[in-house]
Amino acid sequence: MLQTEQTLFEQMRITELEIESRKALFSFTGADVKALQSFKPIIEENIDKIVDDFYGLQTSVSEIALLIGDSDTLARLRTAQRRYVLDLFNGVYDLEYVNNRLRIGLVHKRIGVEPKLYLSAVHTLKELIYAVINGSVQDVRQAERIRAAIDKLVLFDVTLVFDTYIRSLVSEIENAKDKAEKYAQSMESKVKERTQQLEELSQTDPLTGLLNVRHLQETATRILRAAQRRAEPVCVIYLDVDDFKLFNDTQGHRSGDEVLCAVAKAIKETTRAEDHCFRYGGDEFCIIMPNCREEQARENFITRFNQKIKLSLNNISLSFGITDTGPYEYEEANSLIHKADQKMYSYKRASKLQQQTMAAANDLAPENSTAVIHPISQSQSAADKAVE
Q1: What is the rounded distance in angstroms from the CA atom of residue 170 to the CA atom of residue 174?
Q2: Which segments does the entry list as coiled coil (predicted)?
């Protein structure tokens, strides 16, 4: 037996035992086999007329005519139909016979023959065979036995064909289900990815790429709770660009954006992976540093930040406010951020007052005096501007 036939039988789970079981369901016995074999010579004499009449009737149905199409297809169908009718009277209804019937079902399903058209064709074929029986067999009881045998065998064939229809439909449903599941998984993945992107966008400042203020309170609270469980300190740094509004007004907003991006870049490059860096708004930034004391932030972050920022912005100064909490007592997130903010503004006011005082002293100094009081340089290290 060919491999394709073996595969087909395996898929349909049809064995010789199953064939005998189906025959028994229709009471198809050895007597029926003999009745059909006895009529084979007459069928062979009339086979051309049966096939001609069959396709004459079939092609008169527009739906079937469309399925048949051209004359070459019709010629192939006539050959196949001739073989099918002769097989009905061969007297051998084994695995090979069943396999041929299964193939008929698969072909019919593949080319789009609906069950109603198939059943209509079966009825037409039976009527044509009955006409030959009625015109050729004089013995009424023998004619009835042959017709009964044909009825049983055709029903046997129909169940096989419908098995293939059902199997094909189940396969289509399973394929459609698989496609639907894959599509759903794909959509779920895309939705998840898009949701993550939107979530990241909602948390990220579009200009600087730092986290935005929307999640500052939540993040700070989460870090403080984790620090309490581990008895670790938390440091908050608040900073902004000095006289940024004046810079924007004189240099333009594009230059101002470049300054903010440069500050953000320096923050990213000098903070640790566990630190959380936010653009608070405008020219203000906030950094939350887990497991870090104020002194450590001054010595490590501030120093490195100033070195980094001088490389790109040597005419800009920044003001810092630094505070910490823990590891024994902890302030609330709002309070800690507010304290760092106030320290920054306190220093900013003190710095401006110092500059004004120094400027006034220089204005009052005698022209030939050698004593000159220098104002604070705008490029002054941010570490020197730390709030006490």
Answers
A1: 6
A2: 166-204
